[in-house]
Amino acid sequence: MAAYIALAIIYGAISVSYVSVVPLMIAEMFGAQKVPTAIGIMNAWNSIGAFIGNPSQGAIYQHLDRPNSSFTGITIWGATSLFLAACSFVGLKAIVIRSGPHRIWSKL
């Protein structure tokens, strides 16, 4: 149980920066006039993850974790998903860097 509390504290401390920094980054890249549109597009893409993630975690819990009264399967699923997301961001960054400095996405 202590490991889950530590994970919650670390995640909470890190996710605070995501909520507060994203509008500033979007305003820097696209200008203040386009912030609502850019955040709307970003939230639309985030909704795909919420649509897939929550039901899949419920299914994992029902089949693997509930009989054992643990959260091991959900923890593994979440860690794997976050790792794959980080890998995709690194890959995207490599693609953006190769596209050259003349593109707006190279500021990421």
Write up this protein:
- The chain is an all-alpha fold and 108 residues long.
- The chain has helices at 2-30, 35-65, 72-98.
- It is 81% helix and 0% strand.
- The radius of gyration is 18 Å and the shape is elongated.
- The N and C termini lie far apart (37 Å).
User: Can you give the helix content as a percent range?
Assistant: over 70%
Total strand segments: 0
How many alpha or pi helices?
3
Which regions are unreliable across 5 or more consecutive residues at pLDDT < 50?
Answer: none
Outline type: elongated
Structural class: mainly alpha
Count of discrete domains = 1
| Percentage beta strand | under 5%
Radius of gyration over alpha carbons? 18 Å
List the helices and strands and how they pair.
Blueprint lengths: L1 H29 L4 H31 L6 H27 L10
Helix pairs in contact: 2-3
Summarize the structure in short.
With 108 residues, this protein is mainly α. The protein has 3 helices and no strands.
